[in-house]
Structures are given as structure tokens and as C-alpha cells.
Amino acid sequence: MLSSHYSGFGRWILSCIAGVALHAQAAPQYTATLLTPPEGSYTTYVYAISNAGVVGYVEPFSSIGSQPAYWSLQGEGRVLPTLAPSAVGRSIHYAYNINNAGQIVGRSSTVLGDVHGYLLTPGGQIQDLGALPMTRGGTHSPGSNAQDVNGVGSVVGESYTDDGLRAFLWTSNGGMRNLGVLEGGSFSTALAINDAGSVVGVSEVAGGRRAFLWTEAGGMQDLGDLAGGANSSTAKAINGTGQVIGTSQTAEGSRAFLWTQAEGMVDLGLLSGHVESFATGLNESGATVGYSRTANWYTSPFLWTREEGMIDLNSLLLTADPLVSAGLTLTYASGINDAGQILVSGQLNGRSVTAVLTPVPEPSTWVLSLLGGGLLLMAVRRVRRGETH
Q1: Signal peptide position in this chain (predicted)?
Q2: pLDDT tens digits, residue range 376-387?
Q3: Does residue 15 belong to any structural domain of this protein?
Q4: b/e per residue, 76-94, with b = 16+ CB within 10 A?
């Protein structure tokens, strides 16, 4: 072994190499970009981030109701098209999710007064997704809500039926399909879909509600809950490798979870001094975001990875960032894209703000590898020259 030939210099070399490896794996630091409301006087609400941008909705300081909105990753906002013009009477128009191609889904009031899920293309073409059939009248008029869209344009959400709310899967060639409920349940809603067509969400069961995974081959699968959960869990997102995140009750309160086919449901823990945690977003690498709360209901956003565990995003903000110097404090994280950019909410000088956090560029992997290799080569040459001390 190299360390058996010498002590001081060899140990220094090995510690440097170890330091390079640790630096390469450490959680990144972030800078923040505030999201600017579209032109006009609006209250802003955000829901989701993808590689193509951010979506949510805005409420004008008037009586015309909400408007769906889009923001670029650089923070510029604009109002989106709707199924029907906004009118006095609090029309409902929301954008809930966006895929990496820039397709957007949400719900919007129609000219008939119903509220339907929609699919909006990057070019501004909006499609009414309709609703599942209702034949018997009831307390709800026909209506639907689109919650997520995958990379091939398949949409999931929920729609009213004669038997209650049902999760649906919509495709361009098959229309809207009822995904059913778990045994003993009377409602279900689908919250996310990956590019393979696997769907996750929540369904009522006898005595509670459970997170589910739906696939074409296996139908609707109950994902269970964490120990002490008492039939209370919800699946929030699924990535391309089949990892699922969400929130489950435990004997000690709500906990963010990660579910995989191999491991089942795993508790992601809490931030220090907190009592509950909630997972809200997941990217293709398995990085998870959400928020954790104290007993006094103060919340902090977190980033969770297998390498680092759960970290308060406030601790990862670059101290030199002008917004941090001005007093930016983060309270909530709602999504993360494949580039590691995170959608957050917080407080700045007494006002509520929303922002995109972007990882600070670090030395690339090949640079770190060259550095580590160079240090090792120095050690070998000194050993060959007999420089052991």
C-alpha cells in the first residue's frame, strides 16, 4: 500500500484526494431568482417547475377571478390562454404542471360554466380534455382537473362521475379513461405520471386513504403507509426509474417518504427541531424537495438526496447572493427539475415572494478527476525517488 512507504506526505496526499471526492459529492449552493408577476397588479401562486419553466396562477386585484400563468427560469411571467374568457363572477383558471417540452396542464372555466382539465401547447393552442361521463345528475356538474402531463403528452388528474371523484388518464388517441379506486374506496385522484405511463396519486380505502401506483399491466396498487400511518398516505410524484415520493402519517405525525419497488416505503426524516415533513417534488436523479415544520408551524424547505439526507435549503443559499444579503428567508419548496433548479416560496422584507433556486456552478467532474489523479501521481513519483518523509 502507498501509505506503508511513508507517513506525512502520503497521508497529506490521501487526505487531499479524499477531500476532492467529498467536494464532488457535497450538496450544492444556490442563487435565487425572483419570479416577476405578469404586467399588472397580481397576487402570485406557483405550483410546478420543469426544465422548460414554471407554472401557477395569478389573481388580479379585481373580481375577474384567477388566471393561469407561466414563468421562464429567468423569472419573467406572462398570463396564459384559457378555455373561456375571464368574466365577472370569479372564473377559475389554473395551471398545475408543465413537462420538459413546455406542455402545460390545469383547469379552466368553460363557456358553459363547467370547469375542465386542459392541455396547452408551447404555441398557445389549448385543448379541452372534457370529463368522465355522468348520467345521473347529482351534487356536482360534470367537471375535471388535469394535474400532470408526461413527456409524450399523456395527462392525469381527476374527474367527477356518478360514483364520485375518479382518477383519470387522458391520451390523444384514447381520450379520458377512468382508473378506478382501491378496494373499499369511493374516490381517487391521480397526481403524477412518468414517461412510461405509470401513474401515482391517492385513493380512499376502508377507514382512510392510501397512496397508489397504477400501471397498464398491474392496475391500481396500494403502496401502503409508514409505521403507525393509520391508512393515511398520498403519492405526489414519480420519476422515470419508478421512484415515488409523497407523505404518510406515522405514530409521530406526517413524514415525507420515498417508495421503490425494492425497498418499499422509506421515511425521509425531519429537519432538526421539527415535528413533521412533507415531500412535494422529485427529479430524474431522485433528488426530493418539500418542507418540514416545527411544533409552532414555522416551515423550512428541504432538499433530500441519498448521499446527503435532508438539508434545510436556507443553509444552502449562497451568502454572497444579494437577495440573501437583503434578508431572503425560504419557507416552502414545491418542485425540482432535472437541472437541480428548485421552485421555492419565502419572505423578503416582510412580503411573500416566489423564486427559482439555481445550483452554483462547481468544478466539473473531469477537472476534479484530473486534480485527484495529479495528486496521486505526485505521491507515486516521490515514493520512487525515496522521498518518504
Answers
A1: 1-26
A2: 555 545 545 554
A3: no
A4: ebebbebbbebeeeebbbb
